[in-house]
Design a protein that fits this description.
- The protein is built from seven helices and eleven strands.
- By secondary structure, the chain is an alpha+beta fold.
- The chain has two domains: 100 residues; 132 residues, Gcn5-related N-acetyltransferase (GNAT) (Aminopeptidase).
- Helix 4 packs across helix 5.
- The longest helix is centred in the middle third of the chain and has 19 residues.
- It starts with a helix and ends in a 14-residue tail after the last strand.
Length: 265
Amino acid sequence: MTVSLAFATDLALRAAEGARIERLPDATVVRMPEDPAFRWGSFLLVRSAGEPSVRAAQHAAAFPGAGFVTVGIDDPHPAFDEGAWLGAGFTVERLAVLTAHRAPQVGGAGVRTLSTDDDWAAQTAIALELEDEPDAGHVAFTLQRTEEHRHVVEADRAVWLGVEVAGRIVATAGIADAGAGVARFQDVQTAAAHRRRGFASALIAAGVRTAAERFRSALFVIVAERGGPAIGQYRRLGFAEVETQVQLSRVDAPSASLDPVGGGA
């Protein structure tokens, strides 16, 4: 059983996107063979961090030739030897896991579901805009992730919402059914020219209401960077931090076809 709320919802989303999840005695192996560029679609989930060299060997055995190592710690409040992992060349990412039980009271922008090819193309464009000069590999990765999101929506496991201005989607967010009455937000994003207008808040409020109605969800989860610009907004909307999600990653062999990506909100 997965202990971390963040990773439990991650596994539910990856499974809905087509991942193969193998539970071993000492680790859970998550594989998305159709999307090898998604590093947090090809990772080990372990109860404790252990030794970097041991986990790197486990990852190499599970993902031969991957060129990267990605390890998640299945603990709501992980304690481990961070210096050892940094010394072994890993990036240590500590993300805040926030939850709410009801929709925030916000007004303003109208929100609708994404439904057309143009809507999804706008969602992809916003995601690419958030990257500094994305190369061809990252463009291909982002397009693949859009297709995976659409697949989950078509399977009625998620809803993707957007705010439209002058006939074009300028802000989007996904809300996915993670099972057991839990819903997880994904990729809350707004085009640069349309920020600070309350669009993200409107999307979150609509996402909570939509998940409550469609999936009968009662707990709503967002994962955010602790030092990022969004976490303060989430707190103002009534989300409270309940866990820390730790992701350990290292690039071993740079490849033009594999771009570093995160898990997203």
